[in-house]
Amino acid sequence: MELKIAIVENNTLAVLGLKQLLQAVIPVMDVDTYGSFADLEQHSPDAYVHYFVSVDILQSHRSFFAERRRKTIVLTPQPSEDALFEGFHCLSVNQPEQELTRAMLHLQEHAHSGGRHLPPMQVKELTKREVEVMKLIVKGYINKEIADKLCIGLSTVITHRKNIMEKLGLKSVSALTIYAVTHGYVSISEV
Known about the structure:
Layout: E1 4-8, H1 12-25, E2 30-34, H2 37-41, E3 50-54, H3 55-60, H4 62-66, E4 72-76, E5 89-92, H5 97-112, H6 128-138, H7 143-150, H8 154-168, H9 173-182
Parallel strand pairs: 1-2, 1-3, 3-4, 4-5
Helix pairs in contact: 5-9, 6-8, 6-9, 7-8
């Protein structure tokens, strides 16, 4: 079965960023994007396991999403206790990248029992030292601090860091953080 997520939002820049983040958090899912509800309706809307929708689209098509409440995540400008969102999962999109990543990891962990309801991902082989370096990177240590903690040279840390990113096919610390949490190398509370 193909697992798919739909993003229904008319802000193209927000859609692109959210799509990239979702693909990093849940790489086993395909992410489709729609600029309007009408676009979603034309593409088998019930084929999706989750809908990430803007507030205005939720308001305009509340009955559709109310029937799919457990699958719907509302993209709010800030954390909200608004009655409009009662019963829906919400994700505040106006927060720093690290906080947004953490919020998405919490949603993924809550909804999918730490990934147990998702198909297995292909795990890349990292060396023991690379795992140690990765853990320290996602905990917020800079290269010099990692070198000092592990009693290795700064250039060695930089080499490990480069190798980790290449092996995992990642391009940012946020993506590395998501990988480390979803694979159990660190807990959400450590990042």
